[in-house]
Amino acid sequence: MTARSLALDVLNKCTLSEQYSNIALDTALRRCDLNAADRALVTALVYGVLERGITLDYQIDSLYTRKDRELQPDTRNLLRLGLFQLAYLDRIPDHAAVNETVALAPRRTKGLVNAVLRSFLRRNKELLYPDASREPIEYLSIRYSFLPAICRRFLKDYGFARTESLLSAFCVQPPLTLRVNTLRITKEELLRQLTAAGYTPKNTAESSVGLTLSGASVTTLPGFEEGWFFVQDEASQLCVAALDARAGMRVLDACACPGSKSFGAAIDMNNHGKLIACDLHANKLSLIQSGAGRLGISIIETEARDARLAKEEWNGTFDRVLCDVPCSGFGVFAKKPELRYKDPEKSAALPKIQLDILNNAAAFVKQGGRLVYSTCTLLPAENGANVRTFLETHRDFTLLCERTLYPDTDATDGFYFAVLQKN
Predict the structure, then answer these.
(1) Could you read off the pLDDT of 315-367 as tens digits, one per residue?
(2) Active-site residue 32, yes or no?
(3) C-beta of residue 288 within 8 angstroms of C-beta of residue 259
């Protein structure tokens, strides 16, 4: 199986069978015998086509002349695959992109696929978009490949210029960001080891314990099995730093899975004290348990529970409580392309759920303790609006600081956190 045929197979699973892209891709790559370069091409093709789906479809519809005959979904996926290579992958020669794509088509559609791709070449690979001044929502949707409802929501919250800046930033593939496990290795030594292995790691801009690198698969990096690091975006690292967990403390991570913030807090505690990591879904807790084992963290206990439910024996017993609440995810589009096509209305109930979690967690904080609220979304209704409402009804808490991080200005995930102290 070639890289392109494997990519097409994964795309069909994602779009026709509605499988999650990361799961379908990981499964396919584990089962294939492609070399590293071809595996990287498969990844680039799958995520690229998914990320640019609306843009590619707009071009296909402008090139496909048989308006009396609807394109079949598998044929459309094949055209998306070919057009993506022509429009976005400069290192692939045009003739190779066309010929290899046509070769994947069944006999009945080879002529159609060839005609559409060559029409795009005759158009000098020009990408067409609606007029931004007359149709701003349609322009943003097609130019950056986001559901119109998402563009409309961002326009309402941020205005046109900032929305375009954010959507453009979400189209840039972010580097891999690691949090150093200082229980086992220093940052300087990890830098040395990665450099010796041929990588080019860089320090994160603000986090003192973060590194970024490109072109790497995390499980193949030196030190993965030894637990020298784990994957965590810099925004999340800064959130954990704001929690200010220290050795000997009692800490609660109310919505913990998959566990990176729990790991970071436990490392900040020098693996001394107690950290209880909770999640609504018991089957996800094994992710935390296995991750803690790899990292050599022994102070984490896991518990399956609804973070909205009271637990009287916990009242006033935690030095630090983290509420990384379930959210729309409208800050991690670059890492989860499916979210580009998620209607914001499906997340309309989340602010109440988030506020219920925050209200409940407040009872667990000791006097003088710290409560951190965080999300990976840029929707103000899920962020500052919830914190304002919380403070109106909890006069015993003070806002120490809050911050929103953005992909266009901070080069991180879109992320929000607020630090609250119990007086």
Answers:
(1) 999 999 999 999 999 999 999 999 999 999 999 999 999 999 999 999 999 99
(2) no
(3) yes
> Angle of helix 53-63 relative to helix 36-51, nearest 10 degrees?
80
For 99-150, the pLDDT digits (tens) are 999 999 999 999 999 999 999 999 999 999 999 999 999 999 999 999 999 9
The catalytic residue among 239, 255, 376, 401 is 376
- How open is the CA angle 219-252-203, to the nearest 5 degrees? 40
